[in-house]
Design a protein that fits this description.
Elements: H1 5-18, H2 38-50, E1 52-53, H3 71-80, E2 83-85, E3 90-93, E4 98-99, E5 104-107, E6 113-116, E7 123-128, E8 133-138, E9 141-143, E10 156-163, E11 166-171, E12 174-176, E13 183-186, E14 193-199, E15 202-204, E16 209-213, E17 216-222, E18 225-227, E19 236-240, E20 249-255, E21 258-260, E22 265-270, E23 280-287, E24 290-292, E25 296-301, E26 313-320, E27 323-325, E28 329-333, E29 342-344, H4 348-360
Parallel strand pairs: 1-2, 2-5, 3-6, 4-7, 5-8, 6-9, 7-10, 8-11, 9-12, 10-13, 11-14, 12-15, 13-16, 14-17, 15-18, 16-19, 17-20, 18-21, 19-22, 20-23, 21-24, 22-25, 23-26, 24-27, 25-28, 26-29
């Protein structure tokens, strides 16, 4: 995120917590809230019938253990075909990653996996879904270089990057050990992402955030499991954090999320980046959130308004049906101003916390 003030506020407390942090093994019960994907699997099988198998583009005697760079071969298959099936074995990709095209479908098989080549970049995008329309990706399996990265700088190595895209469907992505976020949803140039649907994501042990949403309209994250996020601020399972006054946070729906053992927060909302000359509105809906063992189950920072005293932020943040188990803190609300944003919850404990927070915010 461009805005660093939030990180300065929490730097001391996070660094103290980091000394004791440990990645914990995943339990299969974490997946119990995932939605039934039979209808998506039927579509997957339908696409398989007419798909182009990218394995045809590999050289003779190709290697199946994910140690040889086949980026160009796979990218050529994607560029030339609307529906592509990846090889049924791990494939190494270089720092260019794989870029999808408009009106395309990418299918992973049971043993398909794309692995980023270890590098020293501050930024990379293993699967690039930027600036495209009408794209579907089924069962992606992506491995980053968190433990093999060749430098200590940067925080923007993304598993799946969705910036300035429209009408994107991602079914059951698995993203592990990226240098930055598992999935990043935001802006490309002046274009925010619209109508993005991510179903049954499993994102584990990434370095910055499991999922970041910085600019978008009609974003639906359905039944994600976001676990063991650690290494670089904000260290949260899901972070809704616009960067600038030009960004849009409208109709963001986080449904049935499970966050587990994230170093800072299960879900984090930071609205400060929206401050500016233009008044803004946000609409965020969080339903049926389960957190287990994250330092904070839910964290919120509103506005600071040091430079834009007359800025008004309107809209709604709804947090309903929560279950927080062994979280060190259920709620962490930073001293800041909610402006005209309405927060509400069906949970009385949360409602009381919100009322108390509003009474004690900085005027």
């Amino acid at each position: 995120m461009k805005n660093k003030l939030f990180f300065l506020i929490i730097l001391f407390s996070v660094s103290m917590f980091s000394q004791d942090y440990k990645v914990l093994p995943l339990n299969s019960t974490l997946l119990d809230k995932r939605v039934n994907i039979n209808k998506y699997y039927k579509d997957y099988k339908k696409y398989l019938k007419t798909a182009y198998y990218a394995e045809k583009r590999l050289p003779e005697n190709f290697i199946k253990n994910g140690t040889v760079d086949y980026t160009k071969n796979i990218q050529d298959a994607i560029n030339e075909n609307e529906i592509v099936v990846l090889p049924n074995f791990p494939v190494l990709v270089n720092i260019k990653g794989l870029k999808l095209r408009n009106n395309s479908v990418l299918l992973f098989q049971a043993k398909s996996k794309i692995i980023i080549e270890p590098n020293n970049l501050t930024n990379y995008e293993i699967l690039n879904v930027n600036g495209v329309k009408n794209v579907k990706v089924y069962f992606p399996n992506i491995i980053g270089d968190k433990y093999k990265h060749l430098s200590s700088t940067g925080e923007w190595g993304f598993g799946i990057s969705i910036r300035g895209a429209k009408d994107v469907l991602i079914i059951e992505p698995k993203v592990y050990e990226t240098w930055g976020d598992g999935i990043y949803i935001g802006k490309l140039g002046n274009e925010c992402s619209e109508r993005i649907n991510v179903v049954n994501a499993l994102i584990n042990d990434v370095r910055r955030n499991g999922i970041s949403i910085t600019c978008g309209t009609d974003i639906n994250i359905l039944s994600p499991v976001l676990s063991n996020t650690n290494g670089n601020n904000p260290k949260s399972g899901l972070d809704i954090e616009p960067n600038t006054n030009d960004d849009i946070i409208e109709n963001i729906n986080i449904l049935n999320p499970v966050t587990f053992n994230n170093e800072w927060s299960g879900i984090l909302v930071v609205l400060q980046g929206l401050e500016g000359e233009i008044n803004k509105k946000v609409n965020i809906n969080i339903e049926n959130h389960t957190d287990i063992k994250s330092k904070n189950a839910f964290s919120l920072q509103g506005l600071v308004q040091n430079k834009h005293k007359n800025f008004i932020l309107e809209g709604n943040i709804r947090i309903n049906e929560t279950s927080y188990l062994k979280s060190k803190n259920e709620f962490y609300f930073y001293t800041s101003n909610l402006s005209s944003v309405k927060m509400e919850s069906s949970n009385k404990t949360i409602s009381d916390k919100i009322d108390s927070y509003k009474k004690n915010i900085k005027k």
